[in-house]
Amino acid sequence: MNYADAFIIQQLTWKLEKQGDISIEEADGIYSLYSQETLETILYPYSFDYNPELVQALECWYKAVAEKIENGNRGNFVFTISLFQKFHDEYTRPAREALKKYGSFEDLCNYVMIDKKLGFLFPFQHLDKINERRPDELDFYKLTSFRAGMYYYPIRTKSGVYTVSQFMEKLAPFAISIPSNTTAFDVAQTFLRTASISRKLRELWTLRIREAKYYILGFYMNSKDIPCVAAVSNLRKKTFIFVERENAPLVKKVLETPIEFEELLENALQKNIINKKMVDALFFDDINARIPFEFVEESVRYIDEVVGRKMEWEATQKAIEEEDIWLEETR
Fold it and tell me: According to the model, what pLDDT value does residue 217 have?
């Protein structure tokens, strides 16, 4: 493969500074330098093929990109940034740090997980290596990229050119809080595995305290047949779940209802579904702790009951307020 040389990078740097952006094809050409081949040869300081002029040109390029980002500009030049530092690529640091500081979630999104029941919305499932996935991931697609801007990067398919963002706009987004002891990716994957699973479980996988809340939330969505999409930025430590708009009111109520995990444990203890020893093992993060699946089923039922009561109360309040308004108007 023919990669961009120092002269081409210098020309593109001049174009960026004078014209404000480069083309998608030119951005692809620069990002192609992140291949394993180049990182081990022309960009590797201890290789016989090391090209210091190219590295110097790339340093100038990424400094120019960083300046654009700091000034609030966006364009195809963002697609030249790798979100995660590779071995000996210090020259990219200014642009990566600028994007981390000034970039949006859309700039920094690096995973999108899609329940297969919503697959019809996304015409690029072929990008997912389905046959290489683990058995517990077969009910959702996973798009991965460590290249900045995957959320709005144009993807070519047999039926046309699309972006992830144009399909996400058809869905309703909800932010999910991420605990300090886990990652945005782990939260999203735990949630999607349980939200999309199509087979009936008889027992739990090992349940860890840091993932329990999202495990149960996923099964709640599953019980209501609400297919979901999750978008993740590990750098921003953010996860958003997306649902079809007709399901948004219920999901909003569930996420807004203040039910603590300890409340679910107490409810299960009172019904003898779990015992104190199981709870202690869970809080000690014992990887050998086994929790009966009935605990999840009861927690889903409990959440549904609490949310149902809340929605019923709100409906009653609304009816009373409307009746008061009607009485005022008829006086």
Answer: 92
